[in-house]
Amino acid sequence: MKEHQTGKRIITVRAFNTFGPYQSDRAVIPELIIKCLRGLPIETTKGIQTREFNYVENIVDGLISAMNSEYKYDGTFNIGSNREIAIKDLVKMIHTACNSKSELRIGALQDRPTEIWRMCADNSKALDLFQWKAEISFEDGLQKTVEWFKKYIAVFYDKDSNLNLL
Predict the structure, then answer these.
(1) Do the beta carbons of residue 2 and residue 10 sit within 8 Å?
(2) Which alpha helices (DSSP H) does the chain contain, by range?
(3) pLDDT tens digits, one per residue of 53-69
(4) What is the DSSP string of 12-53?
């Protein structure tokens, strides 16, 4: 946190891969949920790369905790759960959560030449300095997100024409 010229503190936070209701299908979790709910085949790489995913309510709580913090710290805070999930495991979890009949083709795609193999937040500064940690588990956040998409998928997709309205 830095003092700005106006005397106000500036806090820099880095949120890691936020997901939840209303998210565009351009992100991996909603894309997979929509494909699973629609019964479309899912093709991925071998899926050994890992990412961290954070339910939106956790990220909002982290931002509020940082904003309300009295600590003076010069640096960046990571807002995340500090939990890596392999993409192949993510695909399987979403497939199960959607009770999907989609065919999984894990390993059907080649890895990107510029693939990032690991991405995970070190949230120790947020935990130490303003006692923030993710309260909603990935699994619970995923279930809430799947339920939201089940309820609203017809709003976004015309099943007769397969028109993507997102």
Answers:
(1) yes
(2) 28-38, 56-68, 87-97, 124-130, 138-156
(3) 999 999 999 999 988 88
(4) EEEE--EE-TT--TTSHHHHHHHHHHHT--EEE-----EE--
Go through the domains of the chain in sequence order and give each one's CATH number. 2-155 (3.40.50.720)
Q: What angle do CA 25, 29, 31 make, to 5 degrees?
A: 35
**Torsion sign, CA atoms 44, 47, 52, 58:** positive
94-109 residue pLDDT tens: 999 999 999 999 999 9
Tokens coding 25 = 């299908």
Q: Distance between CA 43 and CA 105 in Å, rounded? A: 5
Instruction: Go through the chain and tell me how many residues it has.
Output: 166
